[in-house]
Amino acid sequence: MKKLLIGGSPCTHWSIAQHNGREKEASGIGWELFRCYLTAKEKFKPDFFLYENNKSASEAIKEQISHELGAPLHYINSALVSAQNRQRFYVHNFGDIGQPEDRGILLDDILDTSDGEQFYQLAHVSKNAAYCVACRGRYKENGKIGQHLEPRTDGKTNTLTTVAKDNLVAQTIRIGDIQSPAQAHRVYSPYGKSVNLTANGGGQGAKTGLYMCPIDLADYTLEKDAYHIVKNGKIETRYGIQDINLPDGAYVIRKLKPVECERLQTMPDGYTKGITETQRYKCLGNGWTAEVIKFILSHMNIPKNEPLVVLSMFDGIATGRYVLESLGFTNVTYYAYEIDEPAIQVAIKNYPDIIQMGDAFDLHSDDWKLKEAAIRPDISAETKEPQKETPAKKDRSATKTPAFIAAAQLRQLAKERRALADIHPESEIFTNDVTAIEYAVKVLEAMAI
Question: What is the pTM of this model?
Answer without folding.
Answer: 0.74
